[in-house]
Design a protein that fits this description.
This protein has 276 residues and is an alpha/beta fold. It has helices spanning 37-49, 71-88, 100-108, 125-132, 157-175, 194-202, 222-228, 236-248, 259-273, and strands at 2-5, 8-11, 16-22, 54-58, 93-96, 113-116, 136-139, 182-185, 213-217, 253-256. Helix 2 runs parallel beside helix 3 (100-108). The chain is globular, with a radius of gyration of 17 Å.
Length: 276
């Protein structure tokens, strides 16, 4: 499966890694590290050299409890970075945003994919995404980041998340975004308890028929910390294990902070899966 991302190709014939580039002061793992252009560009170049198939640029933290930022503040953070990366890097640049204003501006700046934690549900977002002509990633989020971890409840988390994503894929198709240009993300840690996250990971194969591919973001997340009782800086091994399980259960894109190690883990997993 090849996806055209504003003239750059995302090849999903094998599992790939999406490198994380947060240009925010308050992201849970790397907030404040890449606020300066030179630091952001250098980190993106390193991730591509390590094997990242695309780079995901975000200007608004969506960690649990995070407060929203204005359109202008988010745009000021990400627009110059996206323009520079789109011009200088050979891989697609993904925009991690929910705001239609950002979608329009960043598409003009050369971004190749819209990665929306709210699945294009903000007013105007679906129309903006469709008009951009870009592929999209639709994530499941229960509530909002500032409140999402306050006792989330599901009768059947796998069925409910699947139904939600299927409905959003249908909405995208109705708006003119072909299923072959859509990724889905069950949203690990976004309005889910540890038990919910584990159920979703175990049954990730239930999502593979919804769109062109499944994207997962488990890197350094609190579910890893809860299982291993380790802080953010010591979650590499757990993140690699979760990423490998996700690919084994059908994921095609793994969003990761530790690109080199995740690429290596996925290559081993893919090699085993390719054996008859």
């Amino acid at each position: 499966m090849l996806i055209n991302c504003a003239g750059k190709t995302l090849d999903l014939s094998r599992p790939v890694v999406m490198g994380v580039l947060n240009v925010t002061p308050d992201s849970f793992s790397d907030g404040g590290h890449y606020l300066q252009m030179d630091a952001a560009l250098r980190h993106a170049e390193i991730m591509v050299a390590q094997g990242a198939a695309l780079v995901d640029v975000g200007g608004e933290s969506t960690r649990p409890g995070a407060a929203p930022v204005s359109v202008q503040e988010e745009l000021d953070r990400v627009l110059p970075v996206v323009e520079r990366l789109a011009r200088e890097l050979p891989v697609p640049i993904s925009m991690d945003t929910s705001k239609p204003e950002l979608m329009r501006e960043l598409a003009r700046a050369g971004a190749g994919l819209i990665n929306d934690v709210r699945a294009l549900q903000m007013p105007g977002a679906l129309a903006a995404a469709a008009a951009s002509g870009l592929p999209v990633c639709l994530m499941h989020l229960r509530g909002e980041p500032i409140t999402m971890q306050r006792g989330p409840v599901y009768a059947d988390v796998v069925a409910e998340v699947r139904d939600y994503l299927a409905a959003r894929v249908g909405a995208c198709e109705a708006a003119g975004i072909a299923r072959e240009r859509i990724l889905v993300d069950p949203g690990f840690g976004f309005g889910k308890t540890l038990a919910h996250n584990l159920h979703l990971l175990r049954h990730l194969d239930r999502f593979t028929d919804l769109a062109a591919g499944v994207l997962v973001g488990v890197s350094r997340k609190s579910m890893i910390g809860a299982l291993l009782d380790v802080p953010v800086g010591e979650r590499l091994a757990g993140s690699l294990a979760a990423a490998t399980i996700a690919v084994w259960r059908g994921a095609r894109v793994v969003r990761a902070h530790d690109v080199r190690e995740t690429v290596q883990a996925l290559r081993i997993c893919a090699a085993v899966l390719a054996v008859d």
